[in-house]
Amino acid sequence: MGSVPLFSSPNAGSVTTGGNLWRSKHSTKNIYYAIVGGNLWRWKHSTNNINYPSLQHKRKTRIEYNLLRSQQSSLNHQYKCNEGGPTYKESNIKYVVKAAPAPSGSESLASSPKNIFDSVKNFLVILYYFCYPYSMIARTLCTISASFLAVEKLSDISPLFFVGLLQVLVAHFFMDLYINGVNQVFDLEIDKINKPYLPLPSGKLSFTNGVFIVVSSAVLSFWLSSIIGSRPLIWSLILCFLPWTGYSVNVPMLRWKRYPLIAAMLMFSSWAIIFPITFFLHMQTFVFKRPAIFPRSLIVTVVFLSLYSIGIALSKDIPDVEGDKKFGIHSFSARLGQKQVFWICVSLFEMAFGVALLAGVTSSACLWMKIVTGLGNAVLASILWYQTQYVDLTSPASTRSFYMLIWKLLYAAYFLLAFIR
Q: Where is the sequence biased in composition, kind Polar residues (predicted)?
């Protein structure tokens, strides 16, 4: 049964008409009129030499529909014209008018929260990749690990401790967003080659929105630290903001990432000195109101992160040699070759795990903490060495996967460093 859509009228009811329509015969034309809901609809059924039902003759029929549109402003109902199959070779025409209720205000409002939720969810996913999550996770774990170094007794782990920890986490979250974001803003053309999956080069985040996120994040970071009033926290943010801005911003005398030695020193100073020391002092002097000291555990952390951060600074450029060469960034990987830099990095990482292992087994902590720190660092060093066998230095995907493994091992190392005393 064929179906021909007609037109809509908000005042129409449900009507079915068959062969009982009003019929007016004009020579070879049959005109049918149907009055529904006060509106006059016209259906023009035109045939040539029509012979009505006969068991002996069958002819082709041509049907022409001329519709007079309703002048009503609202189109809220759907009408269907269904042509019935032949009965005794007689063609019966049926019109079925179905009322389709207009969507109520409550239904349109019900879909609104879902759309808002989806928009927020998509934005958070884009923001997640915009902020280099692996570095942000590492900095967060560094904050927690360094803060626990200030804990001298079990009673120190109190609501006061967690409030002080939260102050650093929130303020540095926005600073991390600024540092990672400003790097992506000025590396847009390079990332189209090296990292096309990032939000800016992939087009998922517009350049204007990226700049807005970067600027607002820096402002929020300093605003929160001024409200908190912790001097170690304020200095931590300043000492991160200034050098990393110079690292990324492409203006004369800046853009320090073009110079591999300066870039390595920035990575070293931030991860090995600024982060652990300022986080520890914030908890020690501002939260616990104790005098500033440098315990053995903090010194071990600084030595470990010194070796590890230099390894990260060198290895991060191994997957990006192609784009760096094209844009004149002479990293150590571009100068010395990927293979040589790779094994230098592996040696630095293994040395860092060795320092942590020795410090753990010789610490003044209880026996189980010595076992955890010693055995844990031995396991991390073994995993690193085992994975070096499967790295293809000619494949950016393989070297990038190894780079992410380095960060994951650092996550675990932060957990072990908190137990060294």
A: 1-19
Tell me, what's the pLDDT at 198?
A: 85
- Most confident range (mean pLDDT) of 76-80, 191-195, 202-206 is 202-206
Nearest one of 242, 109, 124 to 178, comparing CA atoms: 242
Q: What is the DSSP code string of 285-324?
A: IIIS-------HHHHHHHHHHHHHHHHHHHHTTSTTHHHH
Report the largest interatomic distance among the alpha carbons of the chain, rounded to a whole angstrom.
Answer: 114
Locate CATH 1.10.600 in the chain. 130-417
Confidence of residue 22 (pLDDT cuts 50, 70, 90): very low
Can you give the three-state secondary structure of 98-155, one letter per residue?
ECCCCCCHHHHHHHHHHHHHHHHHHHHHHHHHHCCHHHHHHHHHHHHHHHHCCCCCHH
Secondary structure tally for the chain: helices H, strands E: 15, 7
Would you say 331 and 321 are in contact if contact means Cβ atoms under 8 Å apart? yes
Question: What is the sign of the dihedral through the CA atoms of 142, 144, 147 and 152?
Answer: negative
**Per-residue pLDDT at 178:** 94
Query: Would you state the pLDDT for residue 64?
Result: 43
- Tell which phi-psi region holds residue 400, choosing left (phi > 0), alpha (psi between -120 and 50) or beta: alpha
Measured CA angle at 146 (ends 143, 149), to 5 deg: 145
User: DSSP assignment of 7-38, as one string?
Assistant: ---TT----EE-TTSEEEEETTEEEEEEEETT
**Span of 142-146, 254-258, 382-386 with lowest mean pLDDT:** 254-258
Sign of the CA dihedral 372, 375, 379, 385? positive
- Rounded to whole angstroms, the Cα distance separating 86 from 61 reads 13
For the stretch 177-193, pLDDT in tens is 999 889 889 988 888 88
Amino acid 66 reads N
Classify domain 130-417 at the CATH topology level: Farnesyl Diphosphate Synthase (1.10.600)
Residue 132 makes CB contacts below 8 A (sequence gap 6+) with 176, 180
Answer whether 287's CB lies under 8 Å from 357's CB: no
Phi, psi angle pair for 12, to nearest 5°: -80, 150
